[in-house]
Design a protein that fits this description.
single chain; alpha+beta
């Protein structure tokens, strides 16, 4: 999740665990500990793109580092909080609880974390939440903003109730996302079964800022199908699938490069590729597309949010990230809201893949 969410979640847990002893200091220390794992971002400028992909949400989010970091910080924190008093075990438990909750909520996103490093290479990703979701963060933020002004010891019970409400609503939202993903997945599965489509694997994840409109990606070997469905649609409602050829020929001769192998690991194989004059363009289909309407009548252009240029003969870094231009957020959100309530024409159109280096938009097939 985003850093604000992690700080808010850490502060809420700090209040839950040590608010009675430390007061508002528990909020500050909780927020600080909640952002500890993301301090790996400070080292990213030292690395090339491939190593940045490996490092971010990597070792700093692993169980091994969590335990080591908690044990290392415990004596210092216990000494600092000796007037409370708080033991080393309690201080270590405080850090570990907040650190591990940071990692756990990151596991609910598509990006995932290397929670099992160095024993588990594959990242853990449950795909239940978008990386920024105000419906998760806002209840805790409002509760913390309120209780921070309740400093009297007589108001401690009210502080605890407010914090419990904030954490409870956030936790309930996560549980709701699990149920809604199950319903959306069943709907996608029913549509594929009616079509008699065979596939190797599939994944579902929510669209930005909500858990009501879901996106599925289906791996059929040499092509991927991408479709959307709202949680308010019946299982009998057909899904409109967009077909993305994988384009393995585009990376012929590059599969041995360290950069490609890192992308293969990072994307978990959910990549597509297209050739260009000096190498290949690659995109990660797990993440949402940046969609734009109006470039050509009746068309919707999709630019993958995570994409790179791989240039084998480059004198410097052979892998370079690409950043698609963002459309007007108001238009996208309005169309998304309309699609959630069943207005499919607001979201669907004849699809094109845009943003590929050195290429005009590519017309894609659609399965009605």
């Amino acid at each position: 999740m985003d850093s604000v969410t992690h700080a808010v979640l850490g502060a809420a847990l700090g209040e839950l665990m040590l608010g009675r002893r430390l007061g508002n200091r528990a909020l500050a220390w909780g927020a600080l500990c909640g952002t500890l794992p993301d301090l790996d971002a400070l080292l990213l400028p030292l690395f090339d793109t491939a190593n940045q992909l490996w490092w971010h949400r990597g070792p700093s989010h692993s169980l091994v580092v969590m335990m080591a970091g908690s044990c290392a910080l415990a004596p210092w924190l216990a000494k600092r909080w000796r007037r409370a008093p708080i033991s080393r075990a309690q201080a270590g438990g405080f850090v570990f609880a907040i650190w591990s909750t940071h990692v756990l909520i990151d596991c609910f996103t598509v990006y995932g974390t290397s929670a099992g490093w160095p024993f588990l290479v594959r990242r853990v990703a449950f795909n239940h939440l978008f990386i920024v979701d105000l419906c998760f963060t806002l209840p805790m933020l409002v509760a913390l903003g309120w209780l921070a002004f309740l400093r009297s010891k007589k108001l401690l019970p009210k502080r605890r109730r407010l914090n419990a409400w904030g954490l409870g609503l956030a936790a309930g939202y996560v549980l709701l996302s699990v149920g809604l993903k199950f319903a959306a997945s069943a709907g996608f599965g029913a549509d594929l079964a009616r079509r008699g489509v065979t596939y190797q694997r599939r994944m579902e994840a929510p669209t930005p800022f909500n858990i009501l409109l879901w996106r599925a990606v289906v791996d059929r070997g040499d092509e991927f199908w991408v479709g959307y469905r709202s949680v308010f649609e019946w299982h009998t409602t057909p899904v409109r699938w967009t077909v993305y050829p994988q384009g393995r020929a585009a990376i012929a001769g590059m599969t041995g490069l360290r950069e490609f192998q890192t992308l293969q690991w990072f994307t978990d194989g959910w990549w597509i590729a297209r050739p260009h004059a000096t190498g290949a363009w690659l995109g990660d289909l797990r993440f949402d597309e940046v969609r734009s309407w109006g470039d050509k009548k009746g068309m919707v252009d999709s630019r993958l949010a995570f994409a790179w240029n791989l240039t084998p003969g480059a004198p410097g870094a052979r892998l370079q990230p690409l950043y698609p231009p963002r459309p007007q957020p108001r238009d996208t959100l309005m169309r998304m809201a309309a699609r959630i309530v069943g207005q499919r024409s607001a979201w669907e159109a004849n699809p094109r893949l845009a943003g590929v280096t050195g290429s005009l938009p590519e017309f894609l097939a659609a399965k009605e």
